[in-house]
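Hey,

The postdoc asked me to send both predictions to you directly instead of through the lab channel. I've kept everything plain text so nothing gets mangled by the mail client. Protein one:
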Amino acid sequence: MRKPGHSDPRLARTGELDVATGGVRPTRDFERRAAARGFRYVAGVDEAGRGCLFGPVHAAAVILDPARPIAGLNDSKRLSAPEREALAPRIRDRALAWAVGVASAAEIDRINILQASRLAMKRAVEALGVRADYLLVDACTVDVAIEQESIIKGDARSRSIAAASILAKTSRDARLRELDREYPGYGLASHKGYGAPEHLAALARLGPTAEHRKTFAPVRNLLQVHLFAEAGA
């Protein structure tokens, strides 16, 4: 059995040209190859929010139904917010199974963002209503006893991972809109916790919240400045 985290090099160029954008659109080639090996329930897995300064990281796992194709699937980063929001309910409606997992800002600070992302992915996979027997994971591995394949830029190459990227992103965006109401003044609904100038300016003005990732440099540096200021007072 191939070890988790090792992609078949023959799949390196999998993808189809998107004439409209000049980029590569995801295909079902990875899923077809897994099915040819006897796997029935192939789940795509991806995360959202890994590079943010604020809030949780979300992950999703999706088992698509080949009999119910979904037009327009693509890497969530290549889609506009309205396109993602339109696709998310179609994915939830047409997939054989889907689930979202979350790791909190506190967990990110405790175990680091990579391990927290893997934890969120594990929670998503384990929450699936249909047990996956093979995983296609975007540039990562999941700590579960299921055969899996780590695919670089998988959200742009596999339709299952693309679907997972959309659900992870829209789920996290919805949570950030809620947190924006809890923590007004930071602009969270617009920048979603990333290090935008508006966010950095609000951090300097208002200070970090309980949901800021204290191990991330801009937040950590600001906390150190406040600590030194208090020590010198």
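Protein two:
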Amino acid sequence: MYNVTGTKIISAQYGIGTIISISDTKVMTITFPEVGEKRFMYPDAFCKSIQSEDTIIQEEAEAAWLVKLEKKKAEEAARKEAESQKKRESRKTLTPEEIESKKAELQHILEGINNNEQFTESTSRIFIVHQGKTYFEEYTGSYIWAPASGIHHHERMTDIRKGDIIVNYANGAVQAISEALCDWFYSPRPSELHGYGWDNAGYRVQLRYQKLSNPVKLDVIQDNIINLRAKIYSSFDSAGNACQGYLYELETSIGKLIKGLILQKVQSDGVLKVMNRF
């Protein structure tokens, strides 16, 4: 790492400043004429809030930040795989009677789809969005939004077109079925999402949410999800649990099972209208 002490930087918030020190933990102290000393983390700040006048230092910081991100991703992937392996090892071995019961339950779901003649095949793409804590804000605002981070599950927002169907998954269950009212478009981060730490630039799609009368949990088809999930970029991990990413294209076979679960319960006309294209 180059010695950054004495380097001039530019901050959109504080103006021109000078790095006066950097600690062993890579915390930089920068002094600004108007506001005095402020502290920033190296190399993160060079990719988020400040820029060096020295192109070599700027490029080195950006490279170090990318290495840091890749290391973090690898550690997170290893952690998830360890958790999945633990769940697989601890999973109960089913008795023959339990296996037959699950088969019968799955057959009942599939028959519910086949016997419902009012529902036809759709040419629309079907996505599943894992909204988690942002579900309330996005449902209230009738949209989904993701930062332009370069990460595949955020960038997949640019695949959505008007008429596509979105499965809204949050808090361990399918909460709603939605229809895209427009193609995706660039949009700054909505003000109600300011507390989540994302960058301002992002992608947005306006939706017509159709809230389910009862949220639908997917644990009843978890074993099937394990067998049917795509090998890469699936919305579900190897243990059949929802991934931590935001937006994925839903596997057709898993979509049919989710459709069957939804149709087992009484739903509003709005839900049924969207399901007609599911």
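Summary for protein two, as requested: Confidence is low (pLDDT under 50) at residues 116-121.

Thanks,
C.
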